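Students often ask why inverse folding is considered easier than folding. One informal answer: many sequences map to the same fold, so there is more than one right answer. In these notes we will look at a single instance of the problem. The structure comes first.
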């Protein structure tokens, strides 16, 4: 019973940490929501953004539990802020930032894709919780204090953030590997198809040439045979026996 109570207590602490984590995230979102257009563009195009921006909630700076209406409002506000028309001094970077925001929004409009993103975030949270439990378990076994750095809400938040980004990155890498493999398979299949078509074409051309040349070969042979017989006939007609001269007797 004591062990069960300890696990329940640890779970309560974990849930409380997670709640504090999202509370702080919301505070950060509120702060970042007043960023200037240039600052938002810099945020969306910062070094490593190709992986940071895999999390659509991170791109839009919105809670995964946000309603569809809240999502729409946030997209509208952020898209206007980074739109190229509003940033004519740097339209190219603004266009790239706008495309990032638009992609994240469209992804979250698809229930399946949104669920996938939420699942990744949840998996990141659960992984960190598990690691915290393992640390505490080992410390207890060693007879040491069970205080860990993740007890600090800020550290816990950073750990969840890093793990979530890692999971998104791993999924993206796997997706690219599957895409490259599929592309290679399609290319190989296409090459085999082209080779088979070319071979069939060569076979047809050979058969066609063979058929066309066969008549010619037969005619040539017949002509040759005919000439041979004519020559033989002529030769026979010219072969006359020599005349025998009769001797005269005196």
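Output (designed amino acids):
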């Amino acid at each position: 019973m004591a062990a069960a109570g300890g696990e329940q207590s640890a779970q309560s602490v974990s849930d409380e940490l997670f709640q504090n984590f999202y509370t702080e995230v919301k505070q950060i979102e509120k702060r970042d929501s007043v960023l200037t257009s240039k600052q938002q563009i810099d945020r969306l195009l910062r070094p490593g953004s190709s992986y940071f921006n895999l999390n659509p909630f991170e791109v839009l700076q919105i809670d995964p539990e946000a309603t569809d209406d809240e999502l729409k409002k946030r997209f509208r506000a952020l898209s206007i802020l980074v739109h190229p028309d509003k940033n004519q001094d740097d339209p190219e970077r603004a266009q790239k930032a706008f495309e990032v925001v638009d992609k994240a929004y469209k992804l979250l409009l698809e229930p399946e894709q949104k669920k996938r993103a939420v699942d990744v975030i949840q998996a990141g949270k659960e992984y960190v919780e598990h690691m915290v439990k393992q640390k505490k378990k080992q410390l207890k076994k060693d007879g040491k204090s069970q205080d860990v750095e993740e007890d600090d809400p800020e550290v816990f938040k950073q750990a969840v953030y890093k793990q979530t980004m890692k999971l998104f990155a791993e999924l993206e890498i796997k997706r690219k590997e599957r895409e490259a493999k599929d592309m290679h398979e399609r290319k190989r299949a296409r090459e085999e198809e082209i080779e088979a078509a070319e071979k069939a074409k060569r076979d047809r051309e050979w058969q066609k040439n063979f058929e066309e040349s066969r008549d010619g070969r037969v005619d040539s042979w017949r002509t040759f045979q005919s000439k041979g017989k004519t020559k033989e006939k002529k030769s026979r007609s010219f072969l006359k026996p020599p005349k025998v001269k009769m001797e005269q007797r005196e």
